[in-house]
């Protein structure tokens, strides 16, 4: 059996694919041959992890139409429309013709477009998964060609849909508090806040944290994933803000958390401050962690804000307005939650009730039952 996976550009697209791939490998008959491929744009997030799963990587050109319309964005749009997207489609036609897959599975995003467009010439069985509460443009365009459409949230009225949640790597659930204490040099003297900016980090969240860092460290211990590209700048600002000798031991700064670090960080954290991508929400929920969500205001179709508000209705999270969050607002939210232990307990229960940790397994079984 040959399966092609596609999806575009960030960890939020790639890591759910890894979750599904692990489930497929776990339940596929051991006496039969299984070949797995990924076709998509070259990105620094997740492709090495796909290779570790035995997936053959086929990189293609891809492009997107940007919402911002300044001169720089318009120039990039022209390059993508006239060169990158057509080249990506041609590359995909050639690759699909060579592989001749039994199934194509798309996680959406601009990186999937050339593959899905090319598949119109072949009509291989197509499965789509939409992470967010609002279907992305690529998903919308190819729904009519899909065999099945998996969705994370139950608010979408789309034909052929199956509500499964967003696939998470089950290994994320195997974190150990004692291992985390050793790994991050946790003092265990105050509540632990895990700050996540997604696979690429989040400059705005970093600014919010740094804006009240001194006050935060007097009350909490922080594990802060700031993004690789932001690490040096964030570290420099931190050193100018904090009374180093007194509070340094309560601040643990990382550019990126790998899978092992992430699972232990989630195990030891009392609360998570995060963007509101579906991948983050479903991992946080599966670990039963209360959260404060700060949606990315520039997200396509405002999907992060919609994800956040739907999730917050369960009682598992508080949402900060994406357009105007302030450092003191974040600090106040944290202090309020920890001043009333019952709030924290209720949020934890709501997170567990929302979680769908078997999403990857459900999708894998649907895919394999096709043949």
Report on the architecture of this protein.
The relative contact order is 0.13. It is globular, with a radius of gyration of 21 Å. With 371 residues, it is α/β, with parallel strands linked by helices. It starts with a strand and ends with a helix. It has a seven-stranded parallel sheet. The model has no long low-confidence stretch (mean pLDDT 91). Helices cover 46% and strands 15% of the residues. It folds into two domains: 2-166 and 357-369, Rossmann fold (3-Layer(aba) Sandwich); 171-354, Rossmann fold.
List the helices and strands and how they pair.
Blueprint: E1 2-6, H1 11-27, E2 35-40, H2 47-52, E3 56-59, H3 71-99, E4 103-106, H4 113-118, E5 126-130, H5 137-142, E6 148-151, E7 161-163, H6 177-184, E8 192-196, H7 203-211, H8 213-219, E9 221-225, H9 231-241, H10 244-247, E10 251-254, H11 259-268, E11 271-274, H12 278-286, E12 291-293, H13 303-312, E13 317-319, H14 327-339, H15 341-354, H16 359-369
Parallel strand pairs: 1-2, 1-4, 2-3, 4-5, 5-6, 6-7, 8-9, 8-11, 9-10, 11-12, 12-13
The CATH homologous superfamily of the largest domain is named Glycogen Phosphorylase B
Please report the total strand number as a whole number: 13
What is the assembly state of the chains in this entry?
Answer: single chain
| Helix percent band | 40-55%
Strand neighbour order, sheet with most strands: 3-2-1-4-5-6-7
**In CATH's first tier, which class of the largest domain applies?**
Alpha Beta
| Total number of helices | 16
Shape: globular
Radius of gyration: 21 Å
CATH architecture of the largest domain: 3-Layer(aba) Sandwich
Kindly identify the CATH topology of the largest domain.
Answer: Rossmann fold
pLDDT < 50 runs, ≥5 residues: none
Order of helices and strands: EHEHEHEHEHEEHEHHEHHEHEHEHEHHH
Estimate what percentage of residues fall within beta strands: 5-15%
State the domain count: 2
Q: How can the largest sheet be summarized?
A: 7 strands, parallel
Structural class: alpha/beta
Average pLDDT taken over every residue: 91
End-to-end span in angstroms?
A: 9 Å
